[in-house]
Amino acid sequence: MKVTPNKDLTSLNSFKVKAKARQLVEFNEAEELTAYLGNLDQQPNSFLILGGGSNTLFTKDYDGIVLKSADTKIEELSVSEKEITIRAGAACDWDNFVAHCTSRGWNGLENLTLIPGTVGAAPVQNIGAYGTEVSDLILSVQCVNLKTLEIETYSNEQCEFKYRDSVFKRRPYLLITSVNFRLNTESLWSARNRPVFYEIKKLPALLLSIPRVKLTPKIRLSANFDNVRDLLSISIIPPKIKRLAVKKMRQRTMPDPNKIGNAGCFFKSPIVSAEIANRIKSKHASVSIYKENNEQYKLSAGDLIKLAGWNGKTIGNVSINHNRPLILLNTGHASGQEIFDVATRIQNTIKNLVDIKVDFEVVIV
User: Which residue segments constitute the domains of the chain, with CATH numbers given?
Assistant: First the structure.
């Protein structure tokens, strides 16, 4: 365990905003953390759990204790002909973990390639991309209850996963120490329970349907999201190839936080009723709408930001990415408060324009 007083957090958040914590505690085992905290008088609400800092915006210094796991172990718990159960420590870099799994032919995580952050942060936000959510693959989550200092295990059902939400987001006193995943290990060409030949037949048509040409304001080649998602769902494509495809797509559209400060997608796409979705569709055809379930629809937050005219704008040291306006960029030496103020202005503009609130995906401190 390592305890650092008056810790500078600039290098520990992907926005690279300046902030300090009264104390940073880095730990490897849950037991050493509970023993340390048991000797403190500190109240639980003065703790902050920090993973990779890729989903956190510090608007000021943190006058409390920041807790950060250092556990990067990956263990194979059980293996069968079809499945493998693995445990990953909360401090594992998420993309390194995905690479570890796909390189061994374990299926499931490849769509989540290049999502920034750590394994411990993944369940909190229920991260997702291209039709896959991490909740689809989580078996259980181990955590420390900072109120009771008990070590607890939450089953997938107890995690109460929803779109970019979980019980851990609503109960910030639950500190995730490790996550158990169940992944598929079946061989590529196993025809058992898998429509292999049907997938081979539809593959060429899907490959041809992915490129999409946009004629306004000028000719631009992009990818059809729905068809990319369908392509990635085809089981005969090896996970290594799927990971490579997702990596190429994300590198083209997602700015590298190591080069320019950002936290990936800052906003969540709102989930609305069919009535609201139909209203938006009739008035604003440029907004992409996706069916979430039989009663709810997801509106593209990026399209809503474009509709409000914010994409490509720069306000002071904060820029809104032109192609992916969900992403806010620290183009200079922006403070966390400056970034928050711009995000709030975007949020208010959309609310006034279409009467829909676009919530923040990033945690504001």
Answer: 2-69 (3.30.43.10), 72-253 (3.30.465.10), 261-364 (3.90.78.10)
Catalytic residue among 92, 101, 159, 265: 265
CB 69 within 8 A of CB 24: no
Determine whether 87 is an active site residue. Answer: no
Active site annotation includes 361: yes
Pairwise CA distance, residues 301 & 240, whole Å: 30
Residue 101 φ then ψ, to 5°: -75, -45
Catalytic residue among 110, 133, 338, 361: 361
Q: Which of 164, 182, 243, 324 does the annotation list as catalytic? A: 164
- Is 143 a catalytic site residue? no
Give CA–CA dist 66/4, Å, rounded.
10
Stated pTM of the model: 0.83
pLDDT string in tens for the chain (365-residue length):
999 999 999 999 999 999 999 999 999 999 999 999 998 876 656 899 999 999 999 999 999 999 999 999 999 999 988 899 999 999 999 999 999 999 998 999 999 999 999 999 999 999 998 889 999 999 999 999 999 999 999 999 999 999 889 999 999 999 999 999 999 987 554 444 455 444 444 445 544 444 443 444 443 434 444 556 666 666 667 778 888 888 888 888 888 888 999 999 999 999 999 999 999 999 999 999 998 888 899 999 999 999 999 999 999 999 999 989 999 999 989 999 999 999 999 999 999 999 999 999 999 99
